[in-house]
Amino acid sequence: MQTNDSSLPPRGDRTPAWSELAALQHTRGAGFELQAAFAADPQRAARYTVEAPGLRADLSKQHWDEAIHAQLLALAEQVQLPARRAAQFAGQIANPTEGRPALHMALRAPRGAGGPFEAEVHGVLDRLLAYAEGVRAEADAGVGPGGRPPIRHIVNLGIGGSDLGPQMVVPALRAHSHPGLSLHFAGNVDGHDLLPLLARLKPEETLFIIASKTFTTQETMANARLARAWFLAEGGHDIARHFVATTTNVKAAAEFGITTTFGFWDWVGGRYSLWSAIGLPIALALGEAGFRALLAGAHAMDRHAVEAPLAGNLPTLLGLLDVWLRNFQGCPSRNLAPYHQGLARLPAWLQQLEMESNGKGVDLAGEPLPFATSPVVWGEAGTNGQHAFFQMLHQGTDTVPVEFILVREPATGVERLKPATAAALAPLLAEQQRMLLANGLAQAQALMLGKTAEQALGETVPTAAPDQAPELIARHRRFPGNRPSTLLMLARLDPWHLGALLAMYEHRVFTSATVWGINPFDQWGVELGKSLCNALLPRLGSGDTTGLDGSTAAALDWLRG
Ligand code: F6P
């Protein structure tokens, strides 16, 4: 086994800063009192607020102080984060197990910036955007070529990174989307995903995008075949017009019968690919200007990530905080609470980004890690989550740090209503926006402030059982408080701001991966299940259970009916 490879920077746990942080957790982190920290330092909120392109982050409600903050920055220096990030941007091999760079930043670098692969990137981008504009123009005109119906429905068939990005961005930016185009997403191999959608569509108005980096993924290929069979059975013709592919495997797409293909490259990881041709659904929804604004926001964050000094570098600070929470404070999960309904799929996108990237158990040298890596990332749009799992966040036995996302200006699309209706709804919607923000702020406050049993005892509680002692009820109504949270704030959710937010998450994942000394750009952990599935598939037909373990054999037998 290869260990301590001298060409690699030191792994986080082998640095002096790591030992210092372990000591600081003992002396300061473990008994950290948020309210006392605010009382002792009136500047605390300002001290721990960081501005980055399009984003303002208040990190003051975390269990850290200047000593911890300083050692986390030292940790970043000692694992050579700035040099590692610069190497990634320069196109060096960031994904050594697959021998590839990880250059999704090149997809959003403007023309003329002189970045790697500029000609290829902008060649595909221009073609993709021209195509998207063509489809949008048909919808505007209400007629397609030769008097045929225009495309009205776009169905993206992809899974994982070929689905989650566009599926999250399109609803997030609905207020900026073409009103005459409906975007749909189906990823699951389960026919219950695509079939109900097909039942509502007409072949002549439908465009299928077969989105797959490899063009071999079982689920996507199965859905592509289902869509093609439906299209032909329903009297559709002109597959060339109604099916396009976004893939690195142009040859396989051609074999499927697809002639319009938008390519990308093996240096774009699946979960980092929404900026590439995989973003076609986004380009169709937003148009050229919107898609370019999304890229520009991400590019602004790229520059921040690589240029801002560590102390004011948001993806660096958030990644370091993730390490602090995971490895020193012992938090196994992190909750994401976006207070914007459009961001309802952000937790799902982030789950793949973070857990497929950093859910690793060995370091770059293949050595088993003696510390924890990716937390479980989970969440739900606020305020819905408050009525589901916030009970556990407030009074459960685990400390789960919560990341709130608050958006100052609403974009509900009220301007698309009839003027009289818009005027009637506007004040109500403005009040709902205030309710939304008040709820988000209040939850962060409640997590920090908590409530003592004494405070609870002083309250009138009409719903408390009258035969129970008030002291007992008060113990149930106590909140421990002192629970950490982060506030991420955006002025508005438009393409530029969303691009910046998403790119921030990408660079943040790289930060913690660099501290942990792992490769965030491979995903070997998805392989085993895929190959065992391929072996089981014929057995579900034949019923042959020879050589299977008892549990799988019995279940297979029962499931065959
Ligand atoms: O889940 C594994 C994975 O390889 C992801 O990394 C990827 O985003 C997804 O499958 C889809 O792959 P493809 O785009 O090749 O169909």
TrEMBL record:
GO terms for biological process: gluconeogenesis; glucose 6-phosphate metabolic process; glycolytic process. Its EC number is 5.3.1.9. It catalyses: alpha-D-glucose 6-phosphate = beta-D-fructose 6-phosphate. The keyword Isomerase applies. It holds the Pfam family PGI. One of its GO terms (cellular component) is cytosol. It comes from the Bacteria. One of its GO terms (molecular function) is monosaccharide binding. Keywords: Cytoplasm, Gluconeogenesis, Glycolysis, Isomerase. InterPro entries: G6P_Isomerase (IPR001672), G6P_Isomerase_C (IPR023096), Phosphoglucose_isomerase_CS (IPR018189), SIS_dom_sf (IPR046348), SIS_PGI_1 (IPR035476), SIS_PGI_2 (IPR035482). Catalyzes the reversible isomerization of glucose-6-phosphate to fructose-6-phosphate. This is Glucose-6-phosphate isomerase. It comes from Aquariibacter albus. The lineage of its organism: Bacteria, Pseudomonadati, Pseudomonadota, Betaproteobacteria, Burkholderiales.
